[in-house]
Amino acid sequence: MDMLKNTRFEQALESLEQLSASLEQNQEWPDKQLQELGDAGVLGWVIPPEWGGFGVSDAELMRGYQRLASACLVTTFVLTQRNGACQRIAGATNSELKAELLPPLARGEIFATVGISHLTTSRQHIRKPAVQASHSNGRIVLDGEVPWVTGAKYADYIVTGGTCEDSKQVLVAVPTKVTGLSVAEPAKMLALNASQTGAVHLDNVELDHRMLIAGPIENVMKQGQGGGAGSLTTSALAIGAASRCIDRIKEESGRRPDLVEFHDSLADDLQLLVDDLGISSGAESETTQQSATAEDIRQRANSLVLRASQAYLAASKGAGFVDGHPAGRAIREAMFFLVWSCPQPVLDAALRELACSISN
Ligand SMILES: Cc1cc2nc3c(=O)[nH]c(=O)nc-3n(C[C@H](O)[C@H](O)[C@H](O)COP(=O)(O)OP(=O)(O)OC[C@H]3O[C@@H](n4cnc5c(N)ncnc54)[C@H](O)[C@@H]3O)c2cc1C
To answer: From atom 42 of ligand 1, which residue's Cα is the shortest distance away?
Structure first.
């Protein structure tokens, strides 16, 4: 069954788009949107059928993310964090944990999220691990601060981890009701405030071994599935956000032919990226079969979303600079891709482009 070709999915897209401006203005958690995604079957996308999901192909998942991000970036971002948690749990060898969490996750009865950046991109320059872990007698203890967790206030479980004294790492599913866990007030950010992202404190949180997803092992985030930093998922979202801006420039160019050449140039870049990601609408492949590396695609997707959003503002002129115009939100949201899940080479490429270095 093609999960993207059904009326419920189309209805969910329409509703997400309609609600996207007020969602960001009121900084509300996208509860209604997540329910609609559940009704459209989207919450089962990354959960294997044996646990009550649909287990869609990688290509379908990326196409879905792109379309959803074009309708509402914040909701789609929240979905990716929830899906990241589901994928990590589904990739575990721990069948007991999968049986306990995956079916209610697929039904949308519980919500899970990830707090994993301190194991990949955040606080890597600080010698002391953000979260210290120890394990003995069937218990795992976590102590420290998880710097970034989207939707922590609304989560039943947070997939997170810590680093042991011997530098091996563990990845676990932490129930948010556990003693010693506290959720900080969400940070006030440049955009995506409805994602309610903030820090989570773990004060010697003790967990049973049955909550273990992976480890202890070096570089636990490089094991299994779920998409590491700078994964194709992050690019699919950037491409979706860019395509919304490019569509808006196209609408504007219907009345102003001078804009056509700029629209066409951005649309060509977009098509190249979609082709390289292997998710063109004609391509029915099960895998993404991208013809460029994930890093290269992310660099170009970042560049495109930044350029497309600014071109949208320039085309909208002063009217676009007034509070409430969608071009303003598009620009603030595009900035997110400069900092979200950016491995060092992607960050370097962005800085090189911004600094206009001529040596590269
Ligand atoms: C809206 C939003 C939502 C997010 N949601 C999640 C989520 O749900 N789950 C998740 O796991 N992650 C999440 N992230 C985290 C994200 O993926 C990145 O890991 C994060 O943005 C990295 O930024 P940082 O400030 O933590 O990086 P850091 O590298 O810790 O940088 C922080 C500061 O440290 C200093 N610094 C950095 N490098 C050095 C150095 N080499 N030497 C000296 N000083 C240095 C700089 O002053 C810098 O500003 C989210 C991020 C955002 C913006």
So the answer is: 125
- pLDDT, tens only, 100-137: 999 999 999 999 999 999 998 888 888 899 999 998 88
The ligand 1 site (C-beta within 6 Å) comprises: 81, 113-117, 121-125, 147-150, 189, 192, 195, 197, 336, 339-341
Q: Write down all domains in the chain, each with its CATH number in brackets.
A: 7-106 (1.10.540.10), 112-222 (2.40.110.10), 232-355 (1.20.140.10)
3-state secondary structure of 106: helix
Residue-wise pLDDT for 294-336, tens only, equals 999 999 999 999 999 999 999 999 999 999 999 999 999 999 9
The radius of gyration of the chain from alpha carbons, rounded to an integer in Å, stands at 20
Indicate the residue type of 156. D
Cα 104 → chain centroid:
21
Q: Which atom of ligand 1 is nearest to the CA of 187?
A: 1
Distance (Å) from CA 122 to ligand 1 centroid? 4
Best mutation site among 145, 340, 348, 351 for ligand 1 pocket (most ligand atoms within 8 Å of CB): 340
Task: Give, for ligand 1, the residue of 80, 119, 125 to mutate: max count of ligand atoms closer than 8 Å to Cβ.
Answer: 125
First vs last C-alpha separation in the chain: 46
pLDDT band at residue 185, thresholds of 50, 70 and 90? Answer: very high
Considering the entire predicted model, what is its pTM?
Answer: 0.95
Segment 57-83, tens digit of pLDDT: 999 999 999 999 999 999 999 999 999
Check residue 280 and give its pLDDT: 74
Which ranges of 254-343 would DSSP assign to H, the alpha helix? 260-277, 294-321, 326-339
Question: How far is the C-alpha of 133 from the C-alpha of 143, rounded, in Å?
Answer: 7
